[in-house]
């Protein structure tokens, strides 16, 4: 991004800088230096200032059982208390916590006092069912106030929640319930999206009818669509009935800072999804600190993160971070294109949103919509309430960045391009809006206190300007603690022997600008795809495909896509003969539907191609590099001399 191209740099205005939490680069560097000089002292100071502890900690970082690090382990606190009671006790009881906008446009506001009451009742209901500290509770819910209440309710009694995104299939839900060994499932009759009502409870019922879910004793069902719903006697209860007679006072369960607040399943490069286990104290600390530094959150801000609570972004920047800061936030049930593609802009205007956080894939689709229909162009709306814009989930291409900056932010609002992961819990590399000069397409510099580097295969730092592997050099408070049920996989995945177990491997490639040291993420270095900001393992999709009776073999790769970032391309060998024409079309449909049913609609391959075989080396290894070129529609320029069956390439061209 330096030299050859002319890069425009966007500096914060003096006025913005004046009131910013991190005001100017000197302030940013001072924070980094504080952490550099006394790493534990920096995090401990923040943990004392930003969290309310029932029992103060005396230990900070415990590295004795590396890489199973502990932070503030002898301290005790409760996350729900820190999010809700703390605001009410500080006199913010009547402040609006959540502005919920339904798919239909209906708006419901909940104050901190009301939210505390609703969470307490729900927590009491869970306790009444015998759910206790350390039990796992799976939540399979739409974007709703009840969804947030369910998560906070679990946190209040020390139950570990595991959210399964409402777009996942019965099979995917079953796998996660079984792996977590959950005792209760919280769901809804259905969900509204884009003007349509979609079922949830029937999918939950299907999951529970499969093997491995008999740990579930209670199912709590929120009423959302009013669809006719079967309730199994002795197991199922309506959400409203469960909370009806409960007290609105619920003593929080005080837990160790290391207590698992949640498990969230995410895709890896091999095998089944991994249950990323997060802590209580360290996690909440960085959720709050990033709200303060990255989003510069102030008491009168209206914050809107458009993610779903089913992803980590929704955990940290909907359920926990904003509430722990006493912020007013938007929770949105619907989709960006209903009733039209001006929905986001209209909502920003109506609710006077000041900090807006969304994904590049949404921006790209709204650019396209605005190009086709000027009435949904952001400049047609009053977006003057905005002061900060955020981006997350995948690299944002410079042209989308500039469009977002000019048309949504009115060339006035800094864009924070936040790089992080399910495993990191909170932002890792991101601009500070009142300090960092912005360069479109770069997530710029590490969050104060986070120590990242770009290294080669041996773990040695490479010079700026040279691409390499992104690692984190020191444990950080909000980091993943382990993979639920699989500590060996945790060590192998994130602290590999290649780096003597000393560096956290993010799984992304990165390059630092040769002059500024700014980071640009160059994409995953493993077999993980990023489709519309959703993480998908190629192996997971391959396993789903080969589970179909007609499929003998399958290989899945990604291909760049203008709208979704990456698109899924599957190369398939059928057990019978290779289909062509209409027959091929029918099998493609069948396989897409099948994958949708096995994993969820987001995993459906966009492009499926059939061959009599896959390109393999003489030793039988699938040559994925060739498949990636074929997927892009490129001529094969690579060396194919080790290829056993070159004739197959012709069949696999798009
Ligand atoms: C992967 C993590 C936690 C955010 C939601 C996704 C990619 C994420 C950026 C960014 C470039 C990004 C990486 C990362 N990614 N944010 N700002 N710039 N790439 O969480 O599902 O755990 O995916 O998303 O590849 O490893 P996730």
UniProtKB/TrEMBL annotation:
One of its GO terms (biological process) is acetyl-CoA biosynthetic process from acetate. Keywords: Acetylation, ATP-binding, Ligase, Magnesium, Metal-binding, Nucleotide-binding. GO terms for molecular function: acetate-CoA ligase activity; AMP binding; ATP binding; metal ion binding. Mg(2+) binds at residues 546, 548, 551. It comes from the Bacteria. The modification N6-acetyllysine is found at residue 621. ATP binds at residues 393-395, 417-422, 508, 524, 535. Catalyzes the conversion of acetate into acetyl-CoA (AcCoA), an essential intermediate at the junction of anabolic and catabolic pathways. AcsA undergoes a two-step reaction. In the first half reaction, AcsA combines acetate with ATP to form acetyl-adenylate (AcAMP) intermediate. In the second half reaction, it can then transfer the acetyl group from AcAMP to the sulfhydryl group of CoA, forming the product AcCoA. The gene is acs. CoA binds at residues 193-196, 313, 532. Acetylated. Deacetylation by the SIR2-homolog deacetylase activates the enzyme. It catalyses: acetate + ATP + CoA = acetyl-CoA + AMP + diphosphate. The lineage of its organism: Bacteria, Pseudomonadati, Pseudomonadota, Betaproteobacteria, Rhodocyclales. This is Acetyl-coenzyme A synthetase. Its cofactor is Mg(2+). The keyword Signal does not apply.
């Amino acid at each position: 991004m330096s030299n050859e191209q002319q890069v425009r740099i966007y500096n914060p205005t003096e006025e913005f800088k004046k009131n910013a939490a991190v005001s100017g680069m000197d302030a940013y560097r001072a924070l980094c230096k504080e952490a550099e000089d006394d790493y534990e002292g920096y995090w401990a100071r923040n943990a004392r200032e930003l969290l309310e502890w029932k029992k103060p900690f005396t230990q900070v970082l415990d590295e004795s059982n590396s890489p199973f690090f502990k932070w503030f382990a002898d301290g005790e606190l409760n996350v729900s208390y820190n999010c809700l009671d703390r605001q009410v006790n500080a006199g913010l009881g009547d402040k609006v916590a959540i502005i919920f906008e339904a798919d239909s446009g209906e708006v419901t506001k909940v104050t901190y006092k009301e939210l505390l009451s609703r969470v307490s009742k729900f927590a009491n209901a869970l306790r009444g069912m015998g759910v206790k500290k350390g039990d796992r509770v799976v939540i399979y819910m739409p974007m709703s106030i009840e969804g947030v209440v369910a998560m906070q309710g679990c946190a209040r009694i020390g139950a570990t929640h595991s959210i399964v995104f409402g777009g996942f299939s019965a099979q995917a839900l079953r796998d996660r319930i079984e792996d977590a060994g959950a005792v209760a499932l919280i769901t809804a009759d259905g969900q509204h999206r884009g003007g349509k009502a979609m079922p949830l409870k029937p999918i939950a019922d299907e999951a529970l009818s499969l093997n491995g879910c008999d740990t579930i004793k209670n199912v709590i069902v929120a009423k959302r669509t009013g669809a006719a719903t079967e309730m199994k006697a002795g197991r199922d209860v309506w959400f409203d009935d469960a909370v009806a007679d409960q007290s609105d006072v619920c003593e929080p369960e005080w837990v160790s800072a290391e207590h698992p607040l949640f498990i969230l399943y995410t895709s890896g490069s091999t095998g089944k999804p991994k249950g990323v286990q997060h802590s209580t104290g360290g996690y909440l600390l960085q959720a709050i600190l990033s709200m303060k530094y990255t989003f510069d959150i102030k008491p009168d801000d209206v914050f809107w993160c458009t993610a779903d609570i089913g992803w980590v972004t929704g955990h940290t920047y909907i359920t926990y971070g904003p509430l722990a800061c006493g912020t007013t936030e938007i929770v949105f049930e619907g989709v960006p294109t209903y009733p039209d593609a001006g929905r986001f802009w209209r909502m920003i205007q109506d609710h006077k949103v000041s900090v807006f956080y969304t994904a590049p894939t949404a921006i790209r689709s709204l650019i396209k919509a605005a190009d086709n229909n000027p009435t949904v162009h952001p400049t047609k709306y009053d977006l003057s309430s905005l002061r900060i814009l955020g981006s997350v989930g995948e690299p944002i291409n410079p042209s989308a960045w500039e469009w977002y900056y000019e048309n949504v932010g009115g060339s006035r609002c800094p864009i924070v391009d936040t790089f992080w992961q399910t495993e990191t819990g909170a932002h890792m590399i991101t601009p500070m809006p009142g300090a960092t000069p912005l360069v479109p397409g770069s997530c710029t510099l590490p969050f104060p206190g986070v120590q990242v580097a770009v290294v080669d295969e041996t773990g040695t730092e490479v010079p700026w300007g040279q691409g390499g592997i992104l690692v984190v050099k020191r444990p950080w408070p909000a980091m993943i603690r382990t993979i639920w049920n699989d500590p060996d996989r945790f060590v192998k995945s994130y602290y590999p022997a290649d780096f003597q177990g000393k560096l956290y491997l993010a799984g992304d490639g990165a390059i630092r600008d040769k002059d500024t040291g700014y980071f640009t993420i160059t994409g995953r270095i493993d077999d993980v795809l990023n489709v519309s900001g959703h993480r998908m393992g190629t192996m997971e999709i391959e396993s789903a495909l080969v589970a179909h009776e007609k499929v003998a073999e399958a290989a899945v790769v990604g291909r760049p896509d203008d709208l979704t970032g990456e698109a899924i391309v599957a190369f398939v060998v059928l057990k019978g003969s290779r289909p062509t024409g209409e027959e091929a079309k029918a099998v493609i449909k069948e396989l897409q539907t099948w994958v949708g049913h096995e994993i969820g609609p987001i995993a459906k391959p966009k492009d499926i191609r059939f061959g009599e075989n896959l390109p393999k080396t003489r030793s039988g290894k699938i040559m994925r590099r060739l498949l990636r070129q074929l997927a892009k529609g490129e001529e094969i320029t690579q060396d194919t001399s080790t290829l056993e069956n070159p004739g197959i390439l012709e069949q696999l061209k798009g």
